Amino acid sequence: MSWIAITDHHGGQFRPQGLGCGPAEQGGHAYPPDRLLPRGTLLLETRLSPEGRPQTLLAFRRTHPWSGSFSLRALPEGGIILVETQDDDIRHATLPHDPDGRTDIVRLTYAWDAPARWGRLTLERPESDIIHSVDLPPPHPMLLADIEALARHPHSREMDRDVDFFAVSTRVEPVGPMPALTSRVPIATETGDVPAGRLRRGDMVLTDKGEAVPILRMVSRTVPARGSFRPVRLRAPYFGLTKDIVVAPQQRLVLGGSEVEYMFGREAVLVPARHLVNGKSALFAKGPELVTYYHMLLPGHEAVMAAGCALESLYVGRLRRKPAQLAQSVLAGADRARLPEHARPVWPVLKPFEAITLAMERAA
Question: Angle at the Cα of 114 (from 109 to 116), degrees rounded to 5?
Fold first, then answer.
């Protein structure tokens, strides 16, 4: 089991057996009302107020079977405050952040493991690789009934208008580097195209330079197909593609050509797929509530070929030098001594306005 609830301002779903595993609960409890979720993750994506107003991102309060509350708030002077209570026992933490007036999406991840007496609040900006985390006092477990109420009963919660969605998992979900290829994306190897979901450690993939390099590690992650995780369909014959492929919004394409050299003075640049969405050459894909992404870790952060298009492999920077962040990531458990270091992306990464300008130039 993993994701059991997902909600936005238009409605919510709750399935205690897991999303995608049968019909949603439609009233009454298929579980004891005092059933606890001892560990899990609440993930929320939102825009922080550019005008500096305080935001109650998500909050609720209950009285039965015992009193308790939960709140996640953004302060105008900077900082995310999490408070959760059971009876008179209060746990709280503050995660500093810079209120720089930016209006891009931020992702907040509250993970807890009550038996291990461990909790963590993390802020990520999907537009960048920057992560801010703070450890929490030993957290309380959550009631499954609370999660159902949050997901399905808007009157029982408070949620800021700038919140895009939130979702709840029964697992401690990773943060940091994110895989970005759906399972059917064909990756060029020494023996022909292989779907990304079937690649394994040790397989030799072909780079955009025509070299064969070994896969050091394959990673995967299942996430809600919402917000910054919503899949993007890249359509052939654009971007050199011979067939359509579906990738995560943060998957970066290697784009070159005369426009790139003229506009940026470089042979090639990296462009996130989300900045290419225009309803024609790239569009948001439709599908189930959850999507599983895969990716390959290569020695030098080489670009691989996917249906004729060059795509960035998993970029991990100097993650091996940060044991705490490594332990939170999809590479948790990997031998640090065997992980590569990627000093910088293989090509410059375009800023959002640069990527949009390039996309418009090519469309013209």
Answer: 105
